[in-house]
Amino acid sequence: MHGILVILKPPGMTSHDVVVAVRRCTNQRRVGHTGTLDPGAAGVLVLCMGDATRFIPFMEEYVKGYRAELFLGRSTDTQDAGGQTLAEKREFALTDSDMLEAFQAFQGEIQQIPPMVSALKHKGQRLYQLARRGQVVDRKPRSIHIYRLIPVGNWQKPAWRFGHTLMYDTLCSKGTYIRTLCEDIGEYLGVPTHMSFLLRTQVGPWRLEHAVTLEEFTAGMAKLQADENQPPFEGCPPLPGFFPVDRGVGHLPGAIFDLPDAKRLRQGGRLREDQVLSFCAPDSDLFAATGTTATEESLLRLYNVKGQFLGIGQRQRGADQIWKIRPVRMLPS
Predict the structure, then answer these.
(1) Residue 39 CB burial class (10 angstroms; 0-12, 13-18, ≥19)
(2) What is the mean pLDDT of each run of 10 residues along the chain (333 residues)?
């Protein structure tokens, strides 16, 4: 079984818990995710299965979308509702203009210090493991990009006071911590805040409408395995929430080769660019979802004339000034 499975992760499970559950359900060891989601959060979790795990590094730069809730008046040691109170301020009044100004200030490229309750490592240990032992270490700020940050719903109020919450949608780059964004917005406003709700709504091309619950996936697998009339399949099974391997790299342009040249690529050979039968454009929506721009020496999806996905190649100019295609990450023959 090879492909990409989009799961609607429930709150209370870690991303690894979901991976373990899918491994048990499919009896397949090669399962990995393209980016963790907080245990307390729900939403889109993208898993790669079988040969698709080879291409996880090419999917890690996708932008991510979230719906989050900002709680005004209290900060916590975990920056979310599950932590212990650090600071509280009950006497304040903010305007709608104050809120919009703060949201505007955090759009674009900004610096963010990762929280202690994160999976980043410090001297070989996860930060959240150190935090559980009461340790705090220095973390360097990192550049992130907030592409969109907007309040949602009927959010305006005569005055924003203690205990009020604001729901908002954001689209951001890899490595953005929404809990930290909530706390930073509070610091800008001069009010302690924390994240009181989080739902991941998007990972690159995959949104909530593409996702299935673990229960739905398990039931689908059981039905598929019990159906004696189901023809054998290779690769992507006919199940909701499952997508072919190359869907995960649809943001890259494609190149098509005849069968002998495709075989040579699979064997590690390089081909001249004039041996490409035709090029195909990237999916424009997926390309935008990476937050990246094209370069001359760009990566390519590789296909044979039968439409079979071969893997990832790279277009490079050699010392002889001739453009060539070299294999970078290929599927098994």
Answers:
(1) middle
(2) 94 94 93 90 96 92 94 94 94 97 96 76 65 70 93 96 98 93 97 97 93 95 79 73 92 93 94 92 61 60 95 88 91 84
Question: What phi and psi, each to the nearest 5 degrees, are found at residue 22?
Answer: -70, -40
Q: Catalytic site residue 96? A: no
Hey, what amino acid is at 55? F
* The CA-based dihedral angle spanning residues 257, 258, 264, 268, taken in that order and rounded to the nearest 10 degrees: 20
Domain 3-61+205-243 CATH class label: alpha beta
At the topology level of CATH, where does 64-202 sit? Pseudouridine synthase (3.30.2350)
Asked whether 142 and 114 are in contact (CB, 8 A), the reply is yes
Pinpoint the alpha helices (H) of 114-258.
127-132, 178-189, 214-226
**Residue 119's pLDDT is what?**
64
Residues contacting residue 65 through CB under 8 Å, at least 6 positions apart: 169, 170, 171, 172, 200, 201, 202, 203, 207
What does pTM read for this prediction?
A: 0.88
Which one is catalytic: 38, 51, 80, 184?
A: 38
Rounded to the nearest 10 degrees, what angle do helices 15-26 and 214-226 cross at?
Answer: 10
Q: Using CA atoms, how far apart are residues 249 and 235, in angstroms rounded to an integer? A: 16
How far is it, in rounded angstroms, from Cα 155 to Cα 56? 38
- By three-state DSSP, how is residue 71 classified? strand
Residue 296 has what pLDDT?
44
Distance CA 6, CA 218 (A): 13
The pLDDT of residue 282: 82
Can you name the CATH fold of 250-330?
2.30.130
| Residue of 253, 242, 264, 273 lying closest to 330 (CA atoms) | 264
- Assign residue 268 a region (left: φ > 0; alpha: ψ between -120 and 50; beta: otherwise): left
Q: Could you tell me where the DSSP H helices lie in 10-159?
A: 15-26, 96-105, 127-132
Amino acid letter, 275: Q
Pairing relation of β-strands 64-72 and 31-33? unpaired
